[in-house]
Design brief:
Its EC number is 1.1.1.95. Residues 109-283 form the D-isomer specific 2-hydroxyacid dehydrogenase NAD-binding domain. It is a single chain. The chain folds into four domains: 4-99 and 288-316, NAD(P)-binding Rossmann-like Domain (Rossmann fold), CATH 3.40.50.720; 101-278, NAD(P)-binding Rossmann-like Domain (Rossmann fold, 3-Layer(aba) Sandwich), CATH 3.40.50; 317-449, 60s Ribosomal Protein L30, Chain: A, CATH 3.30.1330.90; 453-528, Alpha-Beta Plaits, CATH 3.30.70. The chain is built from 17 helices and 22 strands. It has helices spanning 14-21, 36-42, 59-64, 83-88, 101-116, 119-127, 153-164, 178-184, 191-197, 217-221, 240-249, 287-307, 323-344, 365-377, 389-395, 467-477, 508-515, and strands spanning 4-7, 25-28, 48-51, 70-73, 92-95, 145-149, 168-172, 187-188, 200-203, 227-231, 252-257, 276-278, 349-358, 399-405, 413-421, 425-432, 438-443, 446-450, 455-462, 482-489, 495-502, 520-527. Strands 8-7-6-9-10-11-12 form a seven-stranded parallel sheet, with helices on both faces. α7 links the parallel β6 (145-149) and β7. α5 (101-116) crosses α7 (153-164). The longest helix has 22 residues, at 323-344. It starts with a strand and ends with a strand. 44% of the residues are buried. The structure holds nicotinamide-adenine-dinucleotide and 3-phosphoglyceric acid. Nicotinamide-adenine-dinucleotide (NAD) is lined by residues 75-77, 97, 100-101, 104, 149-155, 172-175, 204-206, 210-211, 232-234, 258-259, 281, 283-284.
């Protein structure tokens, strides 16, 4: 059955066409995003949800999203999605980090020019038949200092354009490296220095606990009298009430906001303030940017739903479309090793150690580790996948160690998973053969070579004559057919392991008889 996607926001129709061309059923219902109840009613039917900023993907929506595998944001900001809740349910959240960056940077520059020359007010006055030439005295940009708070994708494009306008650009961004600042032609400064030196300040950070109200009354007090403030990033970065006071008092010569604490902004404290310019969250609204983000998000969602490729996800390592089919057998191996160890572990898991050697060490190990944790936790938790597994493990205090080795042993690829509990460490290792099928090649240091089937018996025993015959007889007389049989031992007469694939589930009474077979130490049924 073709995957089904709901487009619940005003995305460019280009997205619908991509979904159609790739064989994904897409329902284009752009009004649903604003109607919480309708979204709640419909969401259970979909594998994918394509959104912009109007759709709020809350905990309640996620709880009702029984089939949902991916949320695709045609744009950058994902503050309208409850990512931790999506992650816990194994839903990938992806965005399009570059598709609307140029357009938004251009909007910030437009807002800076508009507010510097009071264009909206001058336009309204002129069209009202007044000719108030002396009322609208503006400010020149050339030679002025522009302070960027946040110098990522959009901030750095703004810097480039502002340098073109002959402005001096300074930036406050803790993650901006000196090399990057140099390459951009930007001076990296501390926040207080930026506040005191800038003639214009533009905001380009996400809204986080650290950035909320970065422009507070205190921050405004540190700014130059007559400075301008531009916010095309997120409402909440500036304290709107404090900005209103500063505009009324003339501390700020003007402010231009595209984004507001509450959107849609219908009755904002800033409305009507002197030299306040506003737009209704139009930063990304150009036909070019909307086409870019719609195409990109639709392709990314199709890649994931159809091929398992992951791009621009905020809660899962990337897996390229070329890589996905090559990685698939190794993901299966990692899941099997995790599941094998998980089913044999009865006490609390303190940590897991993952060792990758040979060709596998060069692969997307982050994805393989996520797959191994998925396999490990699946027997313990109801719903877990590669998206939720690392978070669920972390929440449970499970330590994850990863090592990569170039050295190859007998096998071209070698992956070993060791589960660490308070009582013991148990390891299981495997490889993928040229036929693309995973094999178990070591259990607790004992070499063997076994392909796992849906129903397996894991038996530990003493290596003594008669054991195999006795075991075979018990299974045969109980009507349990043996599909494959694999043996390994430390040394003649010592501890041994036996992995048997059987055709179907082994009833409890048969399990009890197997446990009574002489030289048997442990018998456990495993499912894959
Ligand atoms: N108005 C719109 O329509 C529109 C369109 C696109 C993006 N946006 C918003 O613009 C903002 C920036 O987007 P981007 O693509 O440049 O993001 P980005 O992730 O590329 O850049 C954000 C920058 O902020 C910096 N940063 C993080 N915390 C900081 C802090 N405490 N102090 C200073 N800097 C900090 C980061 O280091 C990073 O360099 C986002 O909030 C995004 O949602 C708005
Ligand atoms: O984060 C973004 O990409 C912008 O805020 C754009 O939002 P929009 O897609 O709702 O216009």
């Amino acid at each position: 059955m073709a995957p089904k996607v709901l487009i619940s926001d005003k995305l460019s129709p280009a997205a619908v066409q991509i979904f159609k061309d790739r064989g994904v059923d897409a329902d284009f219902l752009p009004e649903v995003g604003k109607d919480k109840e309708k979204l709640l009613e419909l969401i259970g039917q979909y594998d994918g949800l394509a959104i912009r900023s109007a759709t709020k993907v809350t905990e309640k929506i996620i709880a009702a999203a029984d089939r949902l595998k991916v949320i695709g944001r045609a744009g950058i900001g994902v503050d309208n999605v409850d990512i931790p809740k999506a992650t816990a349910r194994g839903i990938i959240v992806m965005n399009t980090p570059f598709g609307n960056a140029i357009t938004t940077a251009e909007h910030a520059i437009s807002m800076m020019m508009s507010v510097a020359r009071q264009i909206p007010a001058a336009d309204a006055s002129t069209q009202a038949g007044k000719w108030e030439k002396s009322r609208f005295m503006g400010r020149e940009l050339t030679g002025k200092t522009l302070g960027l708070i946040g110098c990522g994708n959009i901030g750095s494009i703004v810097a480039d354009r502002a340098i073109g306008l002959k402005m001096r650009v300074i930036a406050y961004d803790p993650f901006l490296t000196p090399e990057r600042a140099l390459a951009l032609g930007v001076e990296k400064v501390a926040l207080d220095e930026l506040l005191s030196r800038s003639d214009f300040i533009t905001l380009h950070t996400p809204l986080t606990d650290k950035t909320r109200n970065v422009i507070s009354a205190d921050a405004i007090a540190k700014m130059k009298r007559g400075a301008f403030l531009i916010n095309c990033a997120r409402g909440g970065l500036a304290d709107e009430a404090a900005v209103r006071v500063a505009l009324d008092e003339g501390k700020l010569a003007g402010a231009a906001f595209d984004v507001f604490v509450e959107e849609p902004a219908k009755d904002n404290v800033l409305f009507g303030a002197p030299n306040f310019v506003s737009t209704p969250h139009l930063g990304a609204s150009t036909s070019e940017a909307q086409e870019n983000v719609a195409l990109q998000v639709a392709e990314q969602m199709c890649d994931y739903l159809l091929d398992g490729a992951v791009r621009n996800a905020l809660n899962m390592p990337s897996i390229s479309a070329e890589e996905a089919p090559k990685l698939a057998p190794f993901v299966r191996l990692a899941e099997q090793l995790g599941s094998f160890a998980g089913q044999l572990t009865e006490t609390g898991i303190e940590g897991i150690r993952l060792e990758y050697a040979g060709a596998i060490a060069e692969m997307n190990v982050q994805a393989l580790t996520a797959a191994a944790i998925t396999g490990l936790l699946t027997p313990l938790l109801q719903t877990v996948n590669m998206v939720s597994a690392p978070t669920l493990a972390k929440e449970r205090g499970i330590r994850i160690e990863e090592t990569r080795r170039e050295k190859q042993g007998a096998y071209e690829t070698y992956m070993r998973l060791t589960v660490i509990t308070e009582r013991q460490e148990r390891s299981v290792a495997g490889t993928v053969f040229a036929d693309g099928k995973p094999r178990i090649i070591q259990v607790k240091g004992i070499n063997m070579e076994a392909e796992l089937g849906p129903h397996m018996l894991y038996i530990t025993n003493e290596d003594k004559p008669g054991f195999i015959g006795h075991l075979g007889m018990e299974l045969g007389s109980s009507g349990v057919n043996i599909a494959t049989f694999h043996l390994g031992r430390i040394a003649p007469g010592e501890d041994a392991i036996c992995l048997v694939e059987v055709d179907g589930e082994v009833p409890d009474e048969v399990m009890a008889r197997l446990r009574a077979v002489s030289h048997v130490k442990q018998v456990q049924a495993l499912k894959f």
